[in-house]
Amino acid sequence: MTTRYDDTARDRSAPDPVAFDVVGRNVEKVDGIALATGRAMYAGDFEIRGTLVGKILPSPYAHARIRRIDVTEARTVPGVHAVLTWKDLPRVPHTTAGQGYPEPSPYDTFVLDNKVRFVGDRVAAVAAETAEAADEALHRIRVDYEVLEPVLDARKALAAGAPVIHDEPEAHVVIPVRYEPERNLAAHVHAAVGDPATAFADPDAIVVEHEFETQYAQHCPIEPHVVLAYPDDQARLVIVTSTQVPFHVRRLVAQALELPVRRIRVIKPRIGGGFGAKQEVLLEQLCAALALAANRPVRMTYTRKEEFVAARTRHPQVIRIKAAVDPDGTPRAIDFTVLMNTGAYGSHALTVASNTGSKNLPLYTWKDVRFDASVVYTNLPVGGAYRGYGVTQGAFALECTIDELCEKLGSDPVEWRRNHHIRAGESSPIFEKLGEGKPGVPFTIGSCELDRCLEVGARAIGWKEKRARRETGPFRRGVGMAALMQGSSIPHIDMGAATIKMNEDGSFNLLVGATDIGTGSDTVLAQVAAETLGVSSEQIIVLSSDTDVTPFDVGAYASSTTYLSGEAVRRAAAQVADRIRDFAARMLDRPKDTLSLRGGRVHSDDGRSVSLADVGTESLYVSEQEQICATASCVTEKSPPPFAAHFAEVEVDMETGFVKVLKYVAAVDCGTALHPKLAEGQVEGAVLNGISYALTEEYLFNDKGRMLNDSFRHYKIYSTRDRLDIQTILVPSYEPTGPYGAKSVSEININGPLPAISNAIYHAVGVRMRRAPFTPERVLAAIREKDGV
Amino acid sequence: MKVTFMLNGRAVSYDARPDEMLLEVLRREGWLGARRGCEDNNCGACTVIVDGKTVLACATFAAQVEGRSVTTIEGLGDPANPHPIQRAFVDAGAVQCGFCMPGMILSTKVLLDETPTPNLEAIQDALDGNLCRCTGYVKVYDAVQRAAAALAAGEETT
Ligand code: FES
Ligand code: FES
User: What pLDDT does A19 receive?
Assistant: First the structure.
């Protein structure tokens, strides 16, 4: 059963934070010690005797048809139990995107196919007793390829006569959206409010127009994708997997292998980071198919190289942005034209592109807006969900454009943003115009402390003094900033549920489908339950994400866990608290409405109380026996944006073009920070990843579409020796529709570094970096060009 | 072949092929705290301590530890009795997904054994080989400093 938010039923005013006992405090992370002592179990740690090793034969070509594939020899290798090619599997088009049904991503993927569409695409798979035997079997598969011309440049994908990547007749979409695989168009998104052309034509308006370009990048969770699949004694299929979306894994594996959902159980153990990479049902279908073919447990583990090449990436975008403001600075019109490269498959294609607009355009009060995004297939690695989800790319273009407009206006960038951002009580037409594959949901902003974020962030970086400074000499420092918003959950689409049951000692089991992937959501959800039940968080025993045991949840994505699943937990806990009061009313012989839960006891207004242990014992063993238990669900009506102001101070080496980030400040309004330390950790991790993306991370390809830097040695992610100084400031606000005032925090902060650093580089040396990453070569070339060298 | 060495304070003798990596052997024998992050010596998730120095188990042949003393994360503390460094990492909020943490904590152990009160730069140098994609390292630095203080205060029991 689904209950929807009732805004009117909740108190809109922010309660005094000290009114909370558990929420807002840094309670012990429920799995902290297990993780720090190395005892916590990840998908790679589950051992069943006789588990086979599963491996994949990757395509050496970016685009090819498999004319013939011969596995006779491979099957004779000793120790080999299964060899699968496209001939052995049902031909079921599906998407690997871990999204709710019906998925907005095209059904353009088969578990194995007779066509390969990027270097590293899967050709065949084997399961063998040892890794060596598996390798030997792969080696003995004979493939006769018809090599096809690849599309390696997104800008040429739509050209007439370009090779067609998805020429299979089965490719289709399951929601009514534009999809034209015959011309490599994986998705198209269009939205308009008014007509920007009028403002652009106005001779008084100040207009800026530029093109921005972002690159391929990978999430790089330190734990790669790992799956263990085995048939159990009931002939069911158990899948232990490093996923953010266990319930979507169950549904998609059932679909792809034509099995009933009831035959599949998905267990999510500890997860070694996801960042969106694991919002993808990538290896589970194949591993399950091998386990069924071999009738044995099979484990598949991506190597780091496979993780780079064949897992998912951040979709590269080319964004042409045109914006107009009045001479007094009032925002008039904005036009975003996006060309997004989804690689060989359309995973998250439509929705990432939508988010580029839907979570950037509402930030300022534009009167006229046009947004147009074309998503194209290429024979390059596949895009997917990546923390920030398209907003990252759009924020780069938008916030650099604002910086340039401010320069033309002679306005201070902080001041301009303070004057023109969306506020609490306001709405944006974009909320309704741009949804996720269907119209969005109109709503008003319930909480916004962006003003305060701008103020404290500017103070922390020393904005006024440093902005006034103009440096000369070989090392030049500058400061830049950006304002940001994101969302919290996908309204009217995502659902999360929670079950709470009471034990006789006054402790509670909290069963959630929500998926802790290292974010600390188990802890935060325990806090919400504990706060509502008047106990300490140690009294809450959390079990997350086992599809046989826990209720449904869409999983860890769209910045939804705290806001959506947290509200489901609050509701379930409120129902349990209510039932506890029924028992306590009888035990204390007092009217129920005089009773409240606090400190592990039920208190009556006459000063008497009964412990939760006594209530639990009474309910299980003594009178009117029942299991005190409740399940509640939540679907959201809104996607309340968290807001942030980011500030970067950089130093540019004029000789080499090397950019060093001297200090980075992130001031963030995430509503109530239910666990401030975990929230800060989310900010710090996202900022570091964003800085690394802005300055170094990028895929390099040869002219055949092969990735050249597929290891941590050649694809640099930031380490301790980069000596970043990141300061997080949590600016409290109270979101009336969120559990105890919470919104979201996990994604927004990855969006700041690209624009804040680009703007800081401009302040330091006067060049606008519109193509990421800002490598020394690119920065130096820009400096030289400016100096006319 | 057999490899005989001290593991977490006990003598062990494990089967290993001559070309087998220490990480492979440790994990097969149930020492799962040594994590597999890249297997090409670039991430630090497989860090263990050999004779007081950090070593990447994915880049060390099992045969190389013959007769030597190896400490994995399991040798430092356990959930009922965590080592002060482990406690400090949890208290500082430095543990997110935790996948990098065994390596990070063992590198910290070696650092603090050699330099009981390291400055920030020394911490950054010592942990450079341990990639973490979750934390941004801010709370890791705090954790190391807390651990240093806790150890200096004589809380170490092992
Ligand atoms: S697994 Fe050994 S360094 Fe990455
Ligand atoms: S805590 Fe996740 S990689 Fe470090």
Answer: 76
Helix (H) or strand (E) run with residue B109 in it: helix B101-114
Topology of domain A1-16+446-486+640-789, per CATH?
A: Aldehyde Oxidoreductase; domain 4 (3.30.365)
What is the maximum span of chain B, computed from C-alpha positions, in angstroms? 45
Exposed, middle or buried, A101 (CB in 10 Å: 0-12/13-18/19+)?
A: exposed
Ligand 2 atom with the smallest distance to the CA of A221 is: 3
User: Helix (H, G, I), strand (E, B), or coil: what is residue A359?
Assistant: coil
A321 in Cβ contact with A147 (< 8 Å): no
CATH superfamily entry for domain A43-148+219-310? Aldehyde oxidase/xanthine dehydrogenase, a/b hammerhead (3.90.1170.50)
Residues 699-758 of A with CB under 8 A from B: 711-713, 717, 719-721, 723-724, 726, 728
Give the gap in angstroms from C-alpha A559 to the nearest C-alpha of chain B.
16
Nearest to A712 by CA among B37, B95, B137: B37
Report if residue B15 sits inside a domain.
yes
pLDDT for the residue A436: 86
Strands B2-7 and B69-71: parallel
Contacts of A690 by beta carbon, 8 Å cutoff, 6+ apart: A388, A392, A749, A750, A751, A752, A753, A754
Tell me if B93 CB under 6 Å of ligand 2.
Answer: no
Cis before A773 (ω within 30): yes
Contacts with B, A 510-539, CB within 8 Å: 517-520
Taking CA–CA distances from B38, the nearest residue in chain A reads: A304
Residue A340 contacts residue A215 (beta carbons within 8 Å): no
Task: Quote the ligand 1 centre to A304 CA distance (angstroms).
Answer: 10
> What's the average model confidence in pLDDT over B77-92?
98
Nearest to B136 among A223, A684, A712 (CB): A684
What DSSP character marks residue A701?
A: B
Per-residue tokens: B146: 């807390």
pLDDT of res. A8? 34
Q: Is A304 on the interface with B (CB under 8 A)?
A: yes
Nearest by Cα to A358 from A543, A486, A179, A529 = A486
ipTM above 0.95, yes or no: yes
Please list the ranges in chain A whose pLDDT falls under 70: 1-18
**Ligand 2 center–CA A271 separation, angstroms:** 10
Q: What is the DSSP letter of B93?
A: T
First vs last C-alpha separation in chain A: 68
Domain, as residue range, for B122: 84-152
CB contact under 8 A, B99 and A223: yes
Angle at A735 (CA atoms; ends A733, A738), nearest 5 degrees: 135
Whether chain B has a CB inside 8 Å of the CB on A201: the answer is no
Residue A427 CA to residue B23 CA, distance in Å, equals 55
When CB atoms are compared, the residue of B43, B131, B138 closest to A684 is: B138
CB contact under 8 A, A726 and B134: no
Distance from the alpha carbon of residue B86 to the mean position of ligand 1, in angstroms:
21
**What residue ranges line ligand 1, CB within 6 angstroms?**
B 36-39, 41-46, 56, 58
- Dump pLDDT digits (tens) for B36-84: 999 999 999 999 999 999 999 999 999 999 999 999 999 999 999 999 9
A102: preceding bond cis by omega (within 30 degrees)? yes
Query: For residue A18, what pLDDT is reported?
Result: 53
Token readout for A229 is: 């699949």
Hey, what's the torsion of the CAs at A40, A46, A47, A52, to 10 degrees? Answer: -150
Which pLDDT score, from 0 to 100, does residue A12 have?
Answer: 38
Q: Tell me the CATH number for domain A151-201+326-443.
A: 3.30.365.10
**Taking the complete model, does pTM exceed 0.95, yes or no?**
yes
pLDDT digits (tens, 9 = 90+) for B95-148: 999 999 999 999 999 999 999 999 999 999 999 999 999 999 999 999 999 999
Nearest chain A residue to B86 by CA: give it: A36
